[in-house]
What we know:
The protein is α+β, with helices and mostly antiparallel strands. It has one helix spanning 3-24; strands spanning 27-35, 41-52, 55-66, 77-87, 90-96, 101-107, 112-116, 122-131.
Amino acid sequence: xxxxxxxxxxxxxxxxxxxxxxxxxxQSYSASGQIxxxxxxxxxxxxxxTVARLGEEYSGTITLRHVGLCSVNGVExxxxxxxxKVSSGRLEGMLIMDEDQCRIVASxxxxxxxxxxGSGQNVPINLLIGKSD
Length: 133
């Protein structure tokens, strides 16, 4: 095999390995918090963390549980998918549910911010992400 082709094959092999590395570094983190003016929705779940060039990324399935006083037929519970990007003390992402898709914009270590949904209403969100046991 000529030298240029050998070098090209080595470079391609290295690039393939580097592309697979972030997935191998994924770690499990717990997500918890509240949504709503009166914290009427509770957030719990597990997110996988990967390190990206511009910060950290989290994704996974969470459970939203209505814990407010206005629960007519018992506790309401929903499954949702959460995708977050964290960089420079800013948290941005999406909360994807069957009936709606909401944008998350928060800052600080407490993850205080807004949930901006298709209904056009901005709802407070507090989100904490911590290392799972």
